[in-house]
Amino acid sequence: MRFGVVLGNDPMTTVREAQLLERSGIETAWFPEVPTIGYGDPFVCMALAAQKTERLQLGTSITSAGLRLPPVLLTQVGTLGRLAPGRVRLGWGSGVFSRHLIALPAASGAEQREELRQLRELLDRRATIINGASIEFSPWDRPILDLDDISLEIAAGSPRSAGLAGEFGDGLMAAIDIAPETLRVLRDAAVATATHVGRWRESPLFTVDLGPLCVLEDGEALDSPRAVAVAQPRVASFFAGWMARDTDPDEIPSALRGEYERFRSWARERYGDEPAILDRALSGYGVGARRPETDQFVSPDAIKALTVAGPAQEIAEQLREMERIGVTDVSVTPSLNRVLLEAELSGILRVRELLG
Question: pLDDT at position 2, please?
Fold first, then answer.
């Protein structure tokens, strides 16, 4: 199993962080694309990291449907391929949250499928049809773009989207619900579709975003200040997301209802009920940044339900079960509004050593 870490896209620190990951033996640096709320451009930061690393793989986690025409997106990706041959991973997804931030509706299933068809054909060096015209990359005597060995990995949250990964991708990505039974359903749907269309003769890439990883020390409780600080970005993002979608407390796990209801009351008292202001405020809790004001809602039940936390041996066993399902990669998301420090990798490296 390979490990990756999500970085915060700060062009002033990206090189230092990427080099730290490479020295530590982490295989992949992932770069998010979340416009308007503080993240830098993932492609700029990937280019910076590409020039100063040799082995580290560089991926988008994720770039969103409909933000660029496929030839434009692949021009950016192919430029990265020239800088880091064989090290570029194009993580792609519906991007509901990112699109919401810039007042775009969710991309329909048909729109997602059409964009993926175009991406696949262009990556395979074939012409594709866009708006009725045949589009393809022209070969140059001077090769500036390198689209060879670019892996297209598609975020899946349902069997339908997993089917798109099987039809068009080189692998799939999963987050949010990382229960083994859910991951098995997603992989089975992707593999079934890939088999039907004659793709994936080998096992596919399957990356699971674990969110923050909290490896507890001997005797450390789940509600220790450190564990709460590690888990807070993930827990707050779930509560804020449920509230933004007006999710009824009865629709979420019973162990989390009390804290979720308290979070809703607190958010309305803090930000008011004006929809645009409240929505923007809630969006700020969905970006993986440390926001201590919501520590009060991070209970042991929330940590257990929404993050990967526990003794190193226990976490290693969780990951072994994922590996048996077919998971090839996991990514960890530390707090993204500060520079990645070597100490934050220690727990990851301990778990990795146990996995062998």
Answer: 97
